[in-house]
Amino acid sequence: MPKESSAPGQARILIVEDDPVNIELMKAQLGSEGYVIESVLDGEEALRRLSQTKPDLVLLDIMLPKKSGFEVCKLIKSNAEIRNTPVIMVTALNDMESRVKGIAVGADDFLTRPMDKSQLLARVKSMLRIKQLNDELTSETLASRESSEKLERQQRVLKSMSTQLMQASHLKYEFIVNMSHALRTPLNVIIGFSEMLQDELVGKLNDKQLKYVNNVHESGRELQQLITNIVDVFKIDTGKVPLETTEFSLKDSIVTAAEAMKAAVQEKKMDISVRVAPEASRICADPQKLAVILENLLSNAVKFSPRGSTVQVQAERVGDSIRLCVRDSGPGLSEVDCKRVFTEFYKVSHPEGSPSGGSGLGLAISKKLVLMHGGEIWAESKRGEGSAFIFTLPQRQKRAQW
Ligand SMILES: Nc1ncnc2c1ncn2[C@@H]1O[C@H](COP(=O)(O)OP(=O)(O)O)[C@@H](O)[C@H]1O
Ligand SMILES: [Mg+2]
User: Structural domain boundaries of the chain?
Assistant: First the structure.
């Protein structure tokens, strides 16, 4: 940014000269340009004035009382505060020795006596211009140094915050893993013994007893699923589940996932139809993760579909991706629910009589797994008209991202 004090008309010039006649002459020559001119009669006063008023330029005579012009120039150039002030030394014509000495002590330019007005003005102007550029550069350097220091400080703060966050998330992860282990043991006891009771291994149960023990067993299984889901969410979020891709048959994966629903499908006298387009028959993805996604979508579809209906699974190729769709004829979802169902712990309030229960994590996990593959997932539905859950996966994984 240009410094105003260096602009013609406002620049301040210090004349260091012991001869008042010469001072008046220079003042007269420079005055027409509107510079602010100060003068001092000896070297020591010159240094004092320089430190106090910080002029933009010094016109320095050599023969001075108390300190010579050379000494004054040397002291100016060795003082960090004022060394950028240009010094024009005034020497006698043809005085080569003084010029050489002047260069040695750091003078920026020279003027000779008798002084020619146009030469004086030209030198002063060019020195002031150089000073102005120098000031601009210095302030830019200072500003960039300041901003880079600020940036470094911010980076340090960010780094320590991210370390703290990582430690906190690691502690949280450890807590979740330990808690899940601790919960699983008593839960296995609950599930195991309730199964023994269900199977009437310890004696016959009446209807009420069977109903209650079935409730205990079902809740135990739900809790088991919830624990597994919570651990899965944390593992995925903390990047502890790598994507392990391989090429495999998509149809086989869908059929395997559908078979896992067999009990519920048979119980509700339902059907799962699978249609895979030939160009979508093979996929390069993480087979375990695809299985989790499919099982989540299929279990929801089967759970919410009416008895005797058919759940449709379709796979086709769209561009470089495979597009999979799981369609059911259940209660459907509102526009808002279509967006929110992928949020952790979100549960839709369906009309009375629709199945309830569950933790609201299955779709959230499915979404995370789809995103890991570089795909997308969404729901298309209307209340009362069934739902379609659709996701895409790139047919070939470019590189492992996790
Ligand atoms: N096919 C579907 N039809 C109707 N509602 C669904 C369907 N799939 C999911 N939902 C609703 O979305 C909510 C979240 O589903 P999900 O994340 O799978 O939960 P959960 O893990 O409990 O099965 C469920 O509570 C359910 O109400
Ligand atoms: Mg579910």
Answer: 10-115, 156-237, 246-394
- Report the alpha-carbon distance of residue 87 to residue 13 in Å, rounded: 10
Closest C-alpha to ligand 1, atom 11: 348
Tell me the per-residue pLDDT of 365-374, one tens digit each, with 9 for 90 and over.
999 999 999 9
Q: Which of 256, 311, 252 is nearest to 283 (CA)?
A: 252
pTM: 0.62
Say whether 321 sits in a helix, a strand or coil: strand
Domain 246-394, CATH homologous superfamily name and number:
Histidine kinase-like ATPase, C-terminal domain (3.30.565.10)
Q: What is the pLDDT of residues 299-351, one digit of tens each?
A: 999 999 999 999 999 999 999 999 999 999 999 999 999 999 999 999 888 77
Ligand of minimum distance to the alpha carbon of 325: 1
Measured in Å, residue 359 CA sits from the centre of ligand 1 at 9
Give the ligand whose atoms come closest to the C-alpha of residue 337. 1
pLDDT for position 356: 74
CATH number for region 10-115: 3.40.50.2300
Give one DSSP letter per residue of 157-189, joined into a string: HHHHHHHHHHHHHHHHHHHHHHHHHHHHHHHHH
Where do we find the tokens 């050379």? 70
| Residue 326 dihedral angles phi and psi, to the nearest 5° | -110, 115
Sign of the CA dihedral with 366 first, then 367, 370, and 371 last: negative
**Which residue among 348, 361, 380, 385 has the greatest number of ligand 1 atoms within 8 angstroms of its CB, and so is best to mutate?**
348
1-5 contacts, C-beta under 8 A, 24 or more apart:
1/136, 1/139, 2/132, 2/136, 3/132, 3/135, 3/136, 3/139, 5/56
Strand partners, 89: 60, 110
Residue nearest to atom 9 of ligand 1 (CA): 300
Ligand 1 pocket check: which of 292, 341, 346 to mutate, most ligand atoms within 8 Å of Cβ?
A: 341
Q: Which residues line ligand 1 (CB under 6 A)?
A: 296, 300-301, 304, 328, 330-331, 333, 341, 346-348, 350, 358-364, 387
Each residue's pLDDT tens digit, 195-224? 999 999 889 999 999 999 999 999 999 899
Q: Ligand 1, residues 363, 366, 370, 389: which to mutate, most atoms within 8 A of Cβ?
A: 363
